[in-house]
Structure formats: structure tokens, C-alpha cells
Specification:
Strand order of the largest sheet: 2-3-1-4-5
CATH topology of the largest domain: Rossmann fold
Number of strands: 9
Helix content: 25-40%
CATH architecture of the largest domain: 3-Layer(aba) Sandwich
Number of domains: 2
Strand content: 15-25%
CATH superfamily of the largest domain: P-loop containing nucleotide triphosphate hydrolases
Amino acid sequence: MSSTRGSTRFVIVTGMSGSGRSTCLRALEDVGFFCVDNLPSGLLLELHDTLAERMATMPIAVGIDARAGQLLGDLDVALNKLRDAGVLPEVLFLDCADDVLIRRFAETRRKHPIWQAGTVTEAIAAERAAMLAIREHTTLRLETTDLNVHQLKRQVQRVFDPEHSAGMRLTVALVSFGYKHGLPRDADYVFDVRYLDNPYFVPALSPLTGLDAAVSDWVLGHGGMDALSKMAGLCDHVLPLHAQEGRALVTIALGCTGGQHRSVTLAEAMANHLRVLRLGRVYVEHRDCRVGPASAEP
């Protein structure tokens, strides 16, 4: 049995009820995972060994949520047993803002899984408190507040699709944005590049974006290269540490005023730099750029 242990990717999907766990499991199933929902924590190692014996290296995903009740307290023990057996479990925690969770339960007319009496708001608060211990084991947190089911599915598959991440468990997401539209909710690192000269005030460049060579060259030639060097220095230091820790996703946000020129240029330049490190997959999203998403590593 020991020869099969550690060779199978083992992902535990948990988080707040209503944050998209079912959608996440379906997305994982579509990319080849064997998915099980609401399995008691104490059976995780037995499930791994049974499936590893019969299905070789087929990846496994297990959904665990607040319906497990007191069994959530067994998760810490179960994770230690998996690690002692040579299995490296990944814990994906799905989170969402309370007001959006309340709206989702109202729209679907579903009962909150741990609701006994009182309001949905009180049930969500009780669940969030119960989930605090699990969050300590999280290797990946996805904020689903602003994601629809299709966007969540794409996000999950970017990180976990074995066809696109062979041997690379870390995914680095670079997000350009405009401060006037608000900060990205799920950013691990945020770089403010509004101090750089703004090509918006150059008439020939204003209607273009950072995806255009003329804008990119101008930004990099007006302080952008120095900014890139300093930001890259931090990323070169911390990303290998995140990979060593077992993190599945690190999100780096770069913001300028409108999200059209400076942040777009530097997000693309940073992506090119990070791909050379080969720590994992790198993709870029231009949240507020009028042209839309620009690039993703194949």
C-alpha cells in the first residue's frame, strides 16, 4: 500500500455554505478528479488508499462542510494521518461576503445547512466561527463574492487541471486593476503603481491600453523598469517560499488609477518575468481594461 501513497493529488474542498462548493467539485470532476461530497474526516485516509489502489494516480477531491457537525473537529487529526502516510493534502477554502451569501440563500430558497432557529445571518455567523480552525490548514482560498458559476469553474480549473499543470502545483495570478473601481477582493499582494507618469495625459497614448506596444514602451521607459525590478525582487523571494509551503494559488494585484495603462503594462511584464522562474503556471487578468483579459500561459 505504501507504494501508492503520495502519488495521488488529494484536494479537500471546504468553506462557507453557499460559496460554491458544489460548483467547484463539478469543475474538478470535469478535469478528471474523482469527487466525493460530505465524507466524514476520519475516512479520508481510507478513501485515499482505496482509490489509489484501484485507480492508480487519479486525483481525488473531497467536499467537507458544516453539515459534518462535530466531525469538523476530526479534520486536524485526519490531515496529520494523511501527512504521516506520505500524502500531501491540499485544502481549498471557498469564502464569500455575508451579504452575498444571504442573497444566494434567498434566491435559491434553500435552507442553510446548519440553521436550527433564528435568522440566516445568525446561521452564517455560527458557521464562520466553526470554520476558523479549518482555515488554519488552508493551502488555497478562493473568494467567490464577485464570481458567477462559470467564472468560478474557470478559476478552479486554471489551478487544478492536471493537463495544464503537469508537475506545477503553484499558480500565480496577476491582476491589473483601477483604484477608482475598487481593490480586488482576493489579492495576496497589492502593488500601487499610480506614482508612475501616466500615459493617459499623452494624447497619442490615451485611447490605447497597456497591451499596445507604444504604451508599454512608454511606461517602461518612464520609470516602469525600475518599478518592475523592485516588485520582481519581492516576488522572486516570496513565491518560492509559497511553493515550498504547498500554496496552490498566489494572487498579485497591480493597480493604477483607471486600470488601462500602467497596471496593464506592468502586469504583463511581471508575468513574463515570473514565467522564467518556472515555479508554476502564470496567468494574467486585466480586470478593468476595456480590451479585457490579455494573456494566459498555455
